[in-house]
Amino acid sequence: MLTEKIFAFAQIADQAILWLLISLSILSIGFILERFFTLRKISSESDKIRYKLKLAISSQSIQEVEDLAKEITTLEGRAVNYGLKHIKESGSRGLEEVFNSMVLIEKPELEKHLGFLATIGSNAPYIGLLGTVLGIMKAFNDLAQNTEAGQQTVMAGISLALVATAAGLFVAIPAVMSYNYFLKKVKSILLNLDLVKELCLALAKKRGL
After folding, report:
1. For 64-117, what is each residue's pLDDT tens digit?
2. Contact between residue 138 and residue 161 where contact means Cβ atoms under 8 Å apart
3. Into how many domains does the chain fold?
4. Residue 98 domain-assigned?
5. C-alpha distances in angstroms, 155 versus 49, 103, 161, 164, 201?
6. Is residue 209 part of a domain?
7. Nearest to 124, CA basis, from 23, 53, 197
8. Residues 52, 68: contact at Cβ < 8 Å?
9. Which of 51-55, 99-103, 192-196, 205-209 has the lowest mean pLDDT?
10. How far is residue 195 from each of residues 48, 88, 115, 185, measured CA to CA in Å?
11. From the CB of residue 166, how many other CB atoms can be counted at a distance below 10 Å?
């Protein structure tokens, strides 16, 4: 019967789900650490150059803009460099599209692994809940197969089954928190690119290009 097959599946699936959650937790921690160190470096550079960008926008000094273009180790410096080259070759025509294209190129790299963290954060609790349900099914089925086992055996089985729910939450909570933190960092970095775009547009307008 189908019911018997489901109970047979429950006998092994609850432990398999627990191991799956452990594997996802290891992957999640690895991606969180990778994004943390990568975005921390980029964000630190962005914070340092943001003040210079604001000064350059206020003064619209060509010298200050050219100094920013020398910061080629930073994302903003490279963006200013591209912007100045485009202004010299084509003026302001197509300048906005150049920066939009740069955002499209850089954004996937900045958001690397964030999709995985979002998926884990959304689905790990459900995976854990599935493991718990299967574990409870297993506990009651064991009691039905062995009526002498008693209430204590069932309660022990249920307590073990609840470990899957706890594991699901343990995986999901850090993933969600990290995803929101990294997303905020990415938005801050991309905001600097918008500042660079406004700076280059203002410079091109000043030159009458």
Report:
1. 777 777 777 788 888 888 887 877 777 777 778 878 888 888 888 889 999 999
2. yes
3. 1
4. yes
5. 60, 55, 10, 15, 69
6. no
7. 23
8. yes
9. 205-209
10. 14, 19, 26, 16
11. 12
Asked if the structure places residue 119 within a domain, the reply is yes
Q: Please check whether residue 113 lies inside any domain of the structure.
A: yes
Amino acid at 121: G
pTM tops 0.85, yes or no: no
Q: How many CB atoms lie within 10 A of CB 71?
A: 18
- Enclosing domain of residue 150: 2-204
Per residue in 114-129, is it b (16+ CB within 10 Å) or e — as a string? beebbebbeebbebbe
The identity of residue 156, as a single letter, is A
pLDDT tens digit sequence for 1-39: 666 666 566 667 777 888 889 999 999 999 999 999 999
- In angstroms, the CA 186 to CA 190 distance is 6
Contact call for residues 48 and 190 (beta carbons, < 8 A) = no
Question: HEC states along the chain?
Answer: CHHHHHHHHHHHHHHHHHHHHHHHHHHHHHHHHHHHHHHHHHHHHHHHHHHHHHHHHHHCCHHHHHHHHCCCCCHHHHHHHHHHHHHHHHCCCCHHHHHHHHHHHHHHHHCCCHHHHHHHHHHHHHHHHHHHHHHHHHHHHHHHHCCCCCHHHHHHHHHHHHHHHHHHHHHHHHHHHHHHHHHHHHHHHHHHHHHHHHHHHHHHHHHCC
